[in-house]
Design brief:
Layout (H helix, E strand, L loop, with lengths): L10 E3 L2 E4 L5 E4 L4 E4 L4 E5 L4 E5 L6 H10 L10 E4 L2 E8 L4 E7 L4 E2 L14 E3 L4 E3 L4
Parallel strand pairs: 1-3, 2-4, 3-5
Antiparallel strand pairs: 5-6, 7-8, 8-9, 10-12, 11-12
């Protein structure tokens, strides 16, 4: 998907606000991205990371990936949102002895019994039986 360009040759996608910006590609996937007085940049924001690069250096992204790999960064192995046939899950908080995930279940899909879900007041109606948990509304 190629974003259309504005009069200053900027390609913008997502929730982006700019002023005095020229020749940039700016993509926001999960939050507001603002830019002021910059040019010739690629800015990509996702749930997992933020990339800011000069347009003429983007082909060297493999150098950053190598550094992240050396540092054994979890972002390379575990994406923020993981998709499964029944829906998705995303890590909200993770500590040494706990992990909290948000789970989105497709209509009429099932999860195994090993999942324990406490969902107060968020608009999802779920049924639990010995063999599965079945959601009746996608949230």
């Amino acid at each position: 998907d190629i974003a259309s360009k504005d009069t200053s040759n900027n390609a913008l996608r997502g929730d982006v606000v700019i002023d005095d910006v020229h020749d940039c590609y700016i993509r926001a996937e999960s939050r507001l991205v603002t830019a002021l007085g910059v040019s010739n940049l690629v800015i990509v924001e996702t749930e997992d990371a933020l990339l800011i690069a000069a347009k003429d250096k983007v082909q060297h992204i493999k150098n950053i990936v190598s550094i992240l790999r050396q540092q054994q960064r979890p972002q390379l192995k575990t994406p923020h949102r993981t998709y499964r046939p029944w829906g998705y899950y995303e890590t909200i908080n993770k500590g040494e002895r706990h992990q909290v995930k948000r789970i989105g279940v497709k209509p009429n899909a099932s999860l195994s019994q090993k999942c324990i879900i406490i969902v107060p007041n968020i608009g999802c109606c779920a049924r639990h039986s010995r063999s599965n948990l079945q959601a009746t509304k996608y949230f």
